[in-house]
């Protein structure tokens, strides 16, 4: 295991996870919130997006009671994101993260909040992040509530920031600073 906290754990993606990722990223319920229902993924897309060159990105499978239930990734944000987000201090270590629970029977059980808190603690403690950012779409109230419960604050509206289901959607830049 890469990280574990009680019944929740994450580990790096492995080849055997490809079919799970295809299953989750072709499920309309999941896609409504992640990528868009008009963009179901096949094996080739999953291989390219999640198993191709990763750079400094950590790509992980989420396990709950040893059952695979979703995906999380985290990465130092690059110069382009820093500029879009308005972070011009190059000395700050800033990480971004994205996640989804692909097994919808695990939604609304507090697992997302546990996951975010576990990864945030790891990024602050082990990766020495100064702040962690995410950019959820403004209409995704469930995700935003989860992040706010984990201590994230809305910082800036990002108009027409992300392509989702045929249009550019507004997003919130949210952040949590190391205390």
Describe the structure.
With 179 residues, the chain is of the alpha+beta class. The chain is built from six helices and eight strands, in the order E-E-H-H-H-E-E-H-E-H-E-H-E-E. An eight-stranded mixed β-sheet has the order 1-2-3-4-5-6-8-7, with helices on both faces. Strand 7 (153-164) and strand 8 (167-177) form a beta hairpin. Helix 1 crosses helix 3 (43-51). The two termini are 27 Å apart. The mean pLDDT is 95.
Helix and strand content put the structural class at: alpha+beta
Distance between the termini: 27 Å
Based on CA atoms alone, the radius of gyration comes out at 16 Å
Could you list the spans in which at least 5 consecutive residues all have pLDDT below 50?
none
Chart the SSEs and their pairings:
Elements: E1 3-5, E2 8-12, H1 18-24, H2 28-31, H3 43-51, E3 58-64, E4 67-76, H4 79-85, E5 94-101, H5 111-125, E6 131-134, H6 141-149, E7 153-164, E8 167-177
Parallel strand pairs: 5-6
Antiparallel strand pairs: 1-2, 2-3, 3-4, 4-5, 6-8, 7-8
Helix pairs in contact: 1-3
